[in-house]
Backbone:
DNA sequence: TAGGCCATCTGGTCCT
DNA sequence: AGGACCAGATGGCCTA
């Protein structure tokens, strides 16, 4: 079934590839076996890169295939034993659980007002990544002093509102820097907390809905966004 | 019912 | 050799 986050892999499925994982025949056109996928390691240039899954496909798309003849007749690896398959499955489940735990942690780090802009069920993994990306970008812009004033006050107030109740902790360097930028932006010596208190009112919250678009999770410069949905303007629920 | 999201299984590949 | 990582395939669940 086609999935949005599988747009890359969709191209393979759309071709009607019915690969049962046992047949890495040359007719397979999965995206990994596309030359562009194989030759574009991406900006990360990480440890693992997209590459054709089958040896045959790699030989077809990779002109400087260096293993060449030695692998032409490489025998197919014997399937894992039942025991090893089960342990491998367990490790994979554990690995995926860790990934999901990390996503939960990331959702926990995001201010609740960010997540509350969406239904809980809408905080998918990709949405979480995009929101986090946008949130970080906005914080960076605040530090740079390039964020619109409304966004400064709104974001800062939301952060404070989201802070756990109790004795106020000393302002972090980031907080101090942010408040300094903000006050400088305001051009007044007003107390940050009072400003933020006022800014956290419901009315201001509503007033800032428009400026929230400033925090659009989508940037055309985001590599991971290429080929994905167009910029989303978050509308009021 | 189609589409989106997810968990799981699986085989291939890389690394230690 | 075995573990880690990755991506394809598949089926379940949910929603519009």
Residues:
């Amino acid at each position: 079934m086609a999935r949005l986050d599988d747009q890359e892999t969709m191209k393979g499925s759309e071709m009607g590839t019915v690969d049962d994982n046992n047949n890495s025949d040359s007719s397979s056109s999965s995206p990994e076996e596309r030359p562009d996928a194989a030759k574009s390691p991406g900006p990360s240039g990480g440890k693992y890169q997209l590459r054709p899954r089958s040896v045959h496909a790699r030989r077809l798309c990779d002109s400087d295939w260096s293993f060449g003849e030695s692998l032409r007749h490489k025998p197919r690896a014997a399937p894992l034993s039942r025991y090893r398959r089960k342990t491998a499955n367990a490790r994979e489940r554990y690995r995926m659980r860790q990934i999901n735990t990390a996503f939960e942690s990331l959702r926990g780090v995001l201010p609740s007002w960010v997540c509350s802009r969406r239904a809980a069920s809408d905080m998918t993994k990709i949405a979480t990544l995009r929101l986090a990306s946008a949130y970080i970008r906005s914080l960076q812009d605040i530090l740079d002093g390039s964020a619109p004033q409304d966004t400064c006050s709104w974001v800062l107030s939301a952060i404070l509102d989201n802070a756990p109740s109790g004795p106020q902790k000393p302002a972090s360097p980031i907080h101090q820097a942010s408040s300094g930028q903000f006050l400088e932006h305001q051009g007044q010596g007003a107390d940050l907390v009072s400003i933020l208190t006022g800014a956290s009112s419901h009315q201001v919250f509503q007033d800032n809905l428009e400026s929230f678009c400033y925090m659009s999770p989508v940037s055309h410069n985001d590599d991971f966004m290429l080929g994905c949905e167009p910029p989303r303007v978050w509308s009021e629920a």
